[in-house]
Amino acid sequence: MGPAAAGLDRLVPELLAGAGLAVQQESLTVRPSRAGNYVSVTVSFAAVSRADYEAAHEALRAHPDVKWTL
C-alpha cells in the first residue's frame, strides 16, 4: 500500500523484478482506499525460497512510497 499518486501499479512489479523475482504481470490488481488517497497493489511472484520472499519485502519496503507490505 502507498499513496495513490505514487504509480505503485507500475512501481511494485519493477521493484520485484529488480530483486530478481519472476512477476506474474497478469495477476496485478489495484484497489483504491475509500477516500482515494491510497492504493493497495496485489501481484503474484515466484519465490522459491524464504530468502526470495524476504528479498521481495526488503525491496518493497526500501522504497519511500511503499508504506505497508503483507
Query: What proportion of the residues form beta strands (DSSP E)?
Result: 25-35%
Based on DSSP secondary structure assignment, what is the total number of beta strands? 3
Kindly give the count of domains: 1
Strand order across the largest sheet: 1-3-2
DSSP helix fraction: 25-40%
**End-to-end distance, in Å?**
9 Å
Shape: globular
Helix and strand composition category: alpha+beta
> Can you tell me the residue ranges where pLDDT is under 50 for at least 5 consecutive residues?
none
Spell out the helices and strands N to C: EHEEH
The largest sheet, given as strand count, sense and whether it forms a barrel, is:
3 strands, antiparallel
Global mean pLDDT: 95
3D structure, described in words:
The protein is α+β, with helices and mostly antiparallel strands and 70 residues long. It has helices at residues 8-18, 50-61, and strands spanning 2-3, 22-32, 38-46. It has one domain. The protein has a three-stranded antiparallel β-sheet, covered by helices on one side. It is globular. The model has no long low-confidence stretch (mean pLDDT 95).
